[in-house]
Amino acid sequence: MEVKTAIEKAKNNEQTAFNYLLDTFWNDVYGFQLKRTENENDAEDITIQTFSKAFDKIHTYNPEYEFKTWLITISKNLHIDLVRKRKSSISNTVNTRDNDEYHQIMDESPSAEDNIITQQNLAKLLKDIKKLKPHYQEVINLRYFQELSYQEISDQLNEPMSNVKVKLLRAKKLLAEIIKKT
């Protein structure tokens, strides 16, 4: 499959096209982030977010530019956002009561999607999960109900771990949207 063809198919929500684009450009985006962050976990998280955002906004891609450049730009902006978020989430407020110094560090709270999902009762959550496409239902079930690791899910589905991570991220976003609507 050619990249231009894959992009057009992805615009029509064809899963094989998403998989092709992910497999083709994963190492480029991950390598770019690894150099920037010097942290494998951050690089992987940002790469997953990059593909998730790119796939959500694939219809806005301008074919006059290279797809890889578009992905790297998204990735770079996500990294900048992460750095800003980290700087603002740690506030070093000094409290001088009784001549003691206190440093207040804000807790990293779960994402908005995580909060919405956990607020629902199980029965309603299961009904909402049933509204997802079967492959998203399966990955949610394996991760959160069977509590499998990414590697175990990858082995069970016979898919690359990067696909599993992006699929799970998309499933969580879709599920959060379904929950918000109901």
From TrEMBL:
Residue ranges of domain RNA polymerase sigma-70 region in the record: 27-87
SUPFAM superfamilies named among the record's database cross-references: Sigma2 domain of RNA polymerase sigma factors, Sigma3 and sigma4 domains of RNA polymerase sigma factors
InterPro entries: RNA_pol_sigma-70-like (IPR039425), RNA_pol_sigma-70_dom (IPR014284), RNA_pol_sigma70_r2 (IPR007627), RNA_pol_sigma70_r4_t2 (IPR013249), RNA_pol_sigma_r2 (IPR013325), RNA_pol_sigma_r3/r4-like (IPR013324), WH-like_DNA-bd_sf (IPR036388)
Residues of the RNA polymerase sigma factor 70 region 4 type domain: 129-175
UniProtKB keywords: Sigma factor, Transcription, Transcription regulation
Superkingdom of the source species: Bacteria
NCBIfam families, per database record: sigma70-ECF (TIGR02937)
Family: Belongs to the sigma-70 factor family. ECF subfamily.
Protein name, as recorded: RNA polymerase sigma factor
